[in-house]
């Protein structure tokens, strides 16, 4: 895909074993090996290059096993920071995780993620975390993140009660000065229509494009609420389950939005949210 005018940044890449939480179907013992790490990175970069994506935000998979509690969460956060540092030209920013079931102990991990690891955001995927999105602990963590300048990233798959879109609106309205990035919200037709109401009542929510069946409804959304409310995301898990970048990318490029609006959705908005430079020496590269 040739996109000389678009420096594409993907806000939604997961790193980790996709199926641990489902019973370890891929448990071949290789996840800790150098071979697995090499294959995983090579697969991700190949998918990005073939799809026209230059950079991405990396997020740990929320299905990781944690028999040792917060110690395992710290290990996952250390690992995602190291992943960023190994290939910073492609993954300049990374996102951590805290677990609501760790209660007050997670406050120190929020601080460590910011101070020691230099992560840009913290992700919640409460269908994997054993709580509802509007948990009191989630709200308290968001308040702490606001103090530390960390971007909250909240998975909002409306087909699960833990992540209902009305709960996303509820917590966003309780913290109106905090910008929240919502992932997966356009994952179905009814959910996509609900996003219009959620965006209307909670103007501090920005939405990614992942899991949408097409870009038409998101284009209508962007025209109504402004392109600043939309960022490009794919929910990519690479080796051994990923194959390609989202089908939405060419649809965005071929849409009737202005060139500047496409630039914003495909990278500018995300870099602003993550406090990254809008352009660098690689911008505009012809793939």
Rg, Cα atoms, Å: 18 Å
Mass-distribution shape:
globular
Major sheet: size, sense and barrel closure? Answer: 9 strands, parallel
The poorly predicted ranges are 280-287
The run of helices and strands is EHEHEHEHHEHEHEHEEHH
Mean pLDDT rating: 91
Number of helices: 10
How many domain regions?
1
Q: What is the CATH class name?
A: Alpha Beta
Residue share in helices?
Answer: 40-55%
What is the CATH architecture assignment?
Answer: Alpha-Beta Barrel
Cα(first) to Cα(last) distance is: 7 Å
Q: What fraction of residues sit in β-strands?
A: 5-15%
Number of strands: 9
* SS class: alpha/beta
- CATH homologous superfamily designation: Metal-dependent hydrolases
Describe this protein's structure.
It is a single chain. By secondary structure, the protein is an alpha/beta fold. It has one domain (9-273): TIM Barrel. The protein is 41% helix and 14% strand. The chain is built from ten helices and nine strands. The chain has a nine-stranded parallel beta sheet. Helix 3 packs parallel to helix 5. The chain starts with 8 loop residues before the first strand and ends in a 14-residue tail after the last helix.
